[in-house]
Amino acid sequence: MLKIKNRLLKILVVSFLISLIFTLIDMLLHYSISYLNIIQYTYPQSLLNIINNDLFWYSLFKFLTTFSMIFITLLFIKRINFVKLIIPLLITIVFLQIRYLYYSNYTIYWHILNSTLHLIILMLIAYIILKIFYKQR
Q1: For the segment 93-130, what is each residue's pLDDT rounded down to a tens digit?
Q2: CA distance 104 to 55
C-alpha cells in the first residue's frame, strides 16, 4: 500500500513539475515575443469577471491539459522512462494545437512556430524531470 502511495505521489509531483515549468516557459515566450503574443483565446465568458486576460486563461488551460494528460499517461506506464512518454507528449501537443486552430485566427506560420516551440520545450523539460526522478539502472 505504501509503495502504491509513493508511486502515486511521485507521478503527481513529476506531472505537476513538467506541466508547471512548461507552462511558465511558454507563458514567458508568448509574453516576450511579440509575434507569439496571445491576442485571441476562447474561454467561457463567465470567467471575464474574474480576470480579463487571454494569456492568463491560455496558460491556465494549457497547464490543466498538460498536467492531466501526463498524469493519466504516467499512471498506466509500468516502468516510466522518457521513450514511453514521447507519444503521449506528442498527443498533448496535438490536442493543444487543435484548439488553437479551431478557435483562433492566427497565421499558419504562427501555428507551426508555436507547435515547434511547444514540442521542444515540453520534450526537454520532460526528459530532464524524468532523468531526475526516474534514474535508469
Answers
A1: 888 888 777 767 778 888 888 889 999 999 999 999 98
A2: 13
